[in-house]
């Protein structure tokens, strides 16, 4: 917005008629309907009024990001941090819960881990490096994994992906979600164009006198945005309030997540066993020299999840060890278990009337390939690129062309990933001898054919 300020100051110091175009551009960026200013005695005075109003009104923002989860806060950083490009002048990040890093397990009880972790792709790690926060994550706790082993429970087929085959030091990193959030929130409010409002529990979205979204909190207070970004997660209230259509269905699976200590070291490897009832992943955790802690994501039928959740720890550990074929020896202990119902969901459109969806608000997929939040990070990279390009071209933040380009670039990619996950799920659920033979043959072929295997790995890592 520095550009706008400069143009504005220049416009005040010279005859107005010579700067009609520049003023037009400023008013466009301020998104004030022309009827408000065109009948004023002078462009400059009207512009001055508008500019000062926009600068001082703490309830009016260019962009409001609703949802300070990993995706929302990444977008807030991207839009506010990138100093050189034109940036939205006033951004607000809201969340119903104020983020408190002291509550993250790493700080509250360092000997334990956050049960929710993410397998970050190289593309996501590159984003964090660009934002200057990867070093914070590295200083806290993370585990780069150099290998990934995937195998079929009903046969001999298996694939082994290795970092050195794709000329990388690792295939990605396993990071606790609260560690990612702590790093993203560090220094966030130092950005002068960003306001963090929390707790702010969004209860309604109305329209102001100009038709822009007016975001109303549960306590009755409200703020206005030219562009409202819904980053409020899988059950997005904004998506529902604004009647975005979705295609969705239950997987009939629940994921059980917990942290375990194993007898043998995890060898900086991400392990995944595919069973007809769902996949089981052991994800290596950092901060333990003996490498004996893993985060597990065990997808099972809902009825089986109920049973497993009720088991005493020793029996749960035995069941888990059997399901994992004792690949890492005995499961010595496991932490508190959490159960997450799994649902596939995809919005049929990503934007409408000044509202745009990102992250899980736009799409949720099965965690079997660990891609959910990575897709969300790609959404925010593309949205911020398009916003910067649009502002540079003198467009408003809510210009349909900006949002259309965002949708065009992200929707096909997200859909492709969702269908791939769906295909995987069905392929591994099949129990007929032909299906079992086909997938084991397929896995063996992929494993034996380096170029294809590396191509798959490069796609999964976000390198393509
Ligand atoms: C078991 C499991 C394992 C997974 N593993 C991986 C993995 O390895 N790799 C990967 O890439 N992805 C993984 N995922 C997916 C990943 O966790 C999600 O994609 C990611 O958390 C979505 O982030 P988000 O910021 O879009 O939404 P959320 O994390 O849901 O954040 C939404 C935010 O909005 C706020 N909010 C909601 N409603 C309101 C409201 N009314 N007013 C104000 N604020 C509101 C919430 O407080 C929250 O802070 C996994 C998912 C599951 C279930």
Task: Point out poorly predicted stretches.
Answer: 1-56
Average pLDDT = 84
| Shape field | globular
In total, how many beta strands? 20
Determine the CATH superfamily of the largest domain: FAD/NAD(P)-binding domain
Percent strand: 25-35%
CATH class of the largest domain: Alpha Beta
Distance between the termini: 33 Å
SS element count, helices: 16
Helix content: 25-40%
Rg, nearest Å: 25 Å
Q: Structural class, from secondary structure content? A: alpha+beta
How many discrete domains? 2
Regarding quaternary structure, what we see is single chain
Largest sheet: 9 strands, mixed
Distinct bound molecules? flavin-adenine dinucleotide
Q: Could you list some keywords that capture this structure?
A:
alpha+beta, D-Amino Acid Oxidase, Chain A, domain 2, globular, binds flavin-adenine dinucleotide
Structural write-up:
This protein is an alpha+beta fold and 464 residues long. The protein has 2 domains: 2-99 and 188-247 and 345-419, FAD/NAD(P)-binding domain (3-Layer(bba) Sandwich), CATH 3.50.50; 116-183 and 251-344, 2-Layer Sandwich (D-Amino Acid Oxidase, Chain A, domain 2). Helices cover 40% and strands 26% of the residues. The chain has 16 helices and 20 strands. The chain has helices at 2-12, 20-30, 34-37, 43-56, 70-81, 105-108, 122-130, 134-140, 177-185, 237-241, 302-310, 313-323, 372-392, 400-429, 433-448, 450-460; strands spanning 60-66, 91-94, 117-120, 143-145, 147-152, 158-162, 172-176, 194-197, 202-207, 213-217, 222-230, 246-262, 269-275, 278-284, 293-301, 331-334, 338-347, 351-352, 355-357, 363-364. The strands form 3 sheets. Strands 5, 6, 12, 13, 14, 15, 16, 17 and 20 form a 9-stranded mixed sheet that branches. Strands 1, 2, 8, 9, 10, 11, 18 and 19 form an 8-stranded mixed sheet that branches. Helix 13 (372-392) runs antiparallel to helix 14 (400-429). It is globular, with a radius of gyration of 25 Å. The protein binds flavin-adenine dinucleotide. The site of flavin-adenine dinucleotide has 34 residues, from helix 5, strand 3, strand 12 and helix 13.
